[in-house]
Amino acid sequence: MELRNPDPGLYNHDLAPIPTEKRSWGIYNYVSLWVAMSVCIPTYMLASGLIAGGMSWSQSIGTILLGNLIVLIPMLLNAHAGAKYGIPFPVLVRASFGVRGANVPAVLRALVACGWFGIQTWIGGQAIYTMLQILWPASAQLPGGVWICFFSFWALNMLVIWRGIETIKVLEGIGAPFMLVVGLLLLFWITNKAGGFGPVLSTPSKFKTTADFIRFFIPSLTGMVGFWATVALNIPDFTRYAKSQKVQMMGQALGLPAAMTLYSFIGVAVTSASAVLFGEPIWDPVILLSRFNQPVIAFIALIALLLATLNTNVAANVVSPSNDFSNLKPSLISFRTGGLITGVLGIAMMPWKLLSDFSSYIFGWLVGYSGLLGPIAGIMITDYFLVRGRQLDVEDLYRRGGQYEYSNGVNWKAIFALGAGIVLALIGLVLPPVRWLYDYAWFVGFAVSGIVYLVLMRRE
Length: 460
Hints:
This protein has about 450 residues and is mainly alpha-helical. It contains 23 helices and no strands. The chain is about 75% helix and about 0% strand. The two termini are about 30 Å apart.
């Protein structure tokens, strides 16, 4: 739609609504988007981390499937406005937080994405370095080799985002089927070396009692939800290109749970096979591949891992913060500039520390930031479906003084609800008696912020 006199402080070309005639994404685009974003090393490490923590293969896969079915619900709910109005996440969130207050949730989402960008880029750099060592052993003596590979992969990510959203669409469509095939080949190759699926999947759970299992399962499930809690917020950034609601809903429902479960199974089986072959579960696939002196196999697998990491990094971790940072100052920060900011902050967040072990990855990083994003999702969904009945004034989302102006551009009721959800979700970190609140961080934050926001808005 053509906007009439939008405020320059709230509008640029990248944040503008996508006209209906320019929405070209079909079911395959959304399925391939989720396959490409799911088939990546962090997904593999998610599953392998549960195995390393003591779960059996069936417990691990069940936890991941349940987590993804849960997060699919807010994903589809937040996706609706993007497909209906053609607007991105930072514009949609103006309806609940105000045209200026929207910067608070947008920046929180962007900072989490920067952390993820750094993690993915570090993994990609390690993959390149490992591949070099296998193909050219002398490279192991190269001073600063791992850092050279890290920054080379960083530059490749920046190049893709500089070329724009259509390049991402093409990359996802080509890369998704290729990565699945290579993942399956790796699975059958390594399980064959370990003596087949029987020995690989026969390892029992290390938990002796149900209580022991539950203590590990609850924060693990929260981590599974937290894994895609980021995209559950900014999914309008992608569904604004959908041909219809039906297309984006079917594409996501078919793509997300299936792709995550399948690739997680690959991670579970390969990690279990590593325990059979090496006497210990190796949860990092880059380290695992370096154990095999098979240059051809390692080269193909690492190329696939590299492509998977690039696909996921650009789609899941750069599109949203690029829009979010652009929303801070649309007249100065474009989508491309926002991408460069994301890249710099991703390095500053020192991803090598976030990946120090599976516990830091799942219970520290994933569960921790889910306590920030769950409250935002609760407020957005409550506002769009319960407060506004799915009706938005798109013109007012891009102007000052309209119905989303609230108090000088900030809806303090939303800010208060956000703070209440975050405090209750994370308080278990400092108060051991209520540690369970942190273990359920996303769920607690979602429910508390959603309820508080609804009560405050209906008191008007």
